[in-house]
Amino acid sequence: MAHPEQPRENIILVGFMGTGKSSIGKQLAGQLGFQFIDTDRLIIERTGAPIATLFAEKGEEAFRDIESGILTSIGHLNRCVISTGGGTVIREENRAALRALGFVVALTASEEVIFNRVSRNTKRPLLQTENPRETMRALLATRETYYREAAEFTLDTTTLPHAKAVAALIAKARERFSWHHQP
């Protein structure tokens, strides 16, 4: 008799750039003993090009195709914390792939905090505009619905120290995966 496939015990972090997906994700993975995967890092490793270069040379649509391919390629993984690029949720097939991967958590933060965090990084291709603040505001407005649609749980990181964010995520993961002990 065939056994049904066990649900994947992955925690997938979605959210706008600057909400803490990578920094919180690394700490979360460390505490759980899970592998940490950053899909943007995978894109860079597999293409050999920085994301800003991919955007400039191939365009956003081609970049999104690469991003979708990365999600497909990690669909077999288990017991990972996966940090996704901020625009991964734009495509419906990506939202479905993320949900199939495990427990999807949207990290949010106030517009002011996000801008302060991301304005220090000059490698954000979507913010290389005449008015980065307005571009960010428009992107946030567009993507907010997608983050909510993809996620089972949302955590606001505006004033939350990383340690408290990690503790909250572990508590929710225990509930979601019915963990009665440390995984």
Care to give the gist of this entry?
With 183 residues, the chain is of the alpha/beta class.
Task: Please explain how this structure is put together.
The chain has 183 residues and is an alpha/beta fold. The protein has eight helices and five strands; from the N terminus they run E-H-E-H-H-H-E-H-E-H-H-E-H. The protein has a five-stranded parallel sheet, sandwiched between helices. Helix 1 crosses helix 8 (162-177) and helix 2 (39-47) packs across helix 4 (60-73). It starts with 10 loop residues before the first strand and ends in a 6-residue tail after the last helix.
Key terms:
5-stranded parallel beta sheet; 183 residues; alpha/beta
Q: In this structure, how is the largest beta sheet organized?
A: 5 strands, parallel
Uncertain regions: pLDDT < 50 for 5+ in a row?
none
Give the number of DSSP strands.
5
Helix count from the secondary structure assignment: 8
Question: What does the secondary structure layout of this molecule look like, with pairings?
Answer:
Blueprint: E1 11-15, H1 21-32, E2 35-38, H2 39-47, H3 51-58, H4 60-73, E3 80-83, H5 92-101, E4 103-108, H6 111-118, H7 132-150, E5 153-156, H8 162-177
Parallel strand pairs: 1-3, 1-4, 2-3, 4-5
